[in-house]
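Ex. 9. Protein: Polysaccharide deacetylase family protein.
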Amino acid sequence: MKPHWLFPFSLVICIAAMCEQIINQPTTKTGFHRNSVLFKAETVSLPTEQTLNYGDPTPLTSVTNQSHDYQHILTSGPVTKREIALTFDDAPDNAFTPKILDILKSKGVKATFFVVGWRMEAYPEIVKRIVEDGHVLGNHTYSHANLPKLNDDSFQQQIMKTDNLIEKFTGFAPNIVRPPYGNITNKQIHWLGSQKKYVVNWNVDSLDWKGLTGEQVAANVLLHVHPGSIILQHSGTGKGGDLSGTVNALPTIIDKLKSEGFELVTIPELLGIPAP
Ligand SMILES: [Zn+2]
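Predicted structure tokens for Polysaccharide deacetylase family protein:
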């Protein structure tokens, strides 16, 4: 390689490495305002979630994500209490969700499951068990839609259809919503607000959807938690997806957090969200 090629080549490598680092950083937003239920982002890196094998919308780019109205997205609870919330997205399935429920039960921990409507229809007995075990259900849309791509009517249908399904199991529609991929427009956030619903993302990403080992998943969580953290994990996956790392990491995560004096609570408990 001739010397005059070296500089631009090195520059490209450096930029690529920086981008990789930024994308893989968990979010670190803090500053909970309990009265207004708003957050101020001190530093913002981006929620990441890989596409699933069903639906498979393309995740929005980092730049598009940053256009979100982050002050209206809840990503962590108060830093003044040693409380942390475990959340599981893309529930239910019949492969990994039952194993996760077994572990939560054996450890006496309540968590929050963001459920996908069509999966509820496919595995109603698992939803029933989530509710009977005392966990909280949140709305994760009907088809795991990439919400910014939808028109108003389609977006609202995604929410309402899933609300109706959840209500059949719990007796009420949930007031917490997690948009797939963390992606949502300001207009959609404001509509949810008008329906007295809260948009809940996360500030610790286990990256478990990548098929990581239990050790890697546990490290991604335990190295980044702090009081008030909302931890993102998954309990359902598409065809061929592997969440055994999630299952293997969970006992370690729970035991370690408890040993450090953290109480594991649901999202409504962490954020002080009143019952719907
Ligand atoms: Zn999801």
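Check your answer against this statement. Residues 29-271 form a domain with the TIM Barrel fold (CATH 3.20.20.370).
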